[in-house]
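Sequence of Cytochrome oxidase assembly (Halorubrum hochstenium ATCC 700873).
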Amino acid sequence: MTLVLFSLGVYTAATGSGLACQAQWPLCSDQLIPALTINPDFIEWFHRVWAMVTGFLIIGVAGWTWLGSGFERRTKLAATLAVAILPLQITVGAITVTLSGLVPGGYTVSTHAAHLIVALTIFTLLGLATIWGGGRGNARLLRVAAGIAVAGIVASAVFSRAVPFLTYAPPAQAAFYVTGLAGHLGLVATIAYATEAARNRYDGLDAGTAGTVRALAAGSMAALVGTLLLGRDLVLYTATWQQINLVALGVAVALAAGAAWTLRGVDEVRDGTAPIGGD
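Predicted 3D structure, token representation.
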């Protein structure tokens, strides 16, 4: 739901629908529910409804970690932090769509950037809650995470504005963020599992190798986040910025691929905690 919300928000902004609804919030053109036809008002309203439902589900996830059994403290913390910053995301979202309304001049680069960064933070925290709440990792999960990271980043390149394969139209922008965020989630999982491997020493993976994988994934994540930011109209997108974007995309792919390559030949173990040699 959060992944879809992210892409819906990008599509809404890219189509200019963020300034629909007569720049009102929470009403839309003086209505609680606008005409249910595909138009800017409906796109903006649908984005808001999806965000509201997703917000309640995020609260439910946090409640589940506290009321359920067997969840570690870090899982509860990640889910609770996602809820804690949710009001900030709602507030920034409201500001971005109230040009000359609640907050004059709210539809600005700074508010768009804040909206994107806070959304990415919530998505990352939910990813961590899911990963940590799923129990112990193992070498197979670590390899899968690295593979997803590479696949997601490479797929995002097809839709990226840095690579002129496709016109960077609203559907392509939404697809770029879906694939890019999939790659980001793969990197989050890679870092999480590599950190665990450094402590528990998955079979065939020593602490030094796990640290290398973690460092490569972290570097890839930093470069990928840069491309996600450049995917929005946060700067005047000149040829120079396109080259910077292309370099960042290349670095993200190369480092993620390096992490996956480093994991080649690592043996899988059943419980993810056996020391080297399976002793």
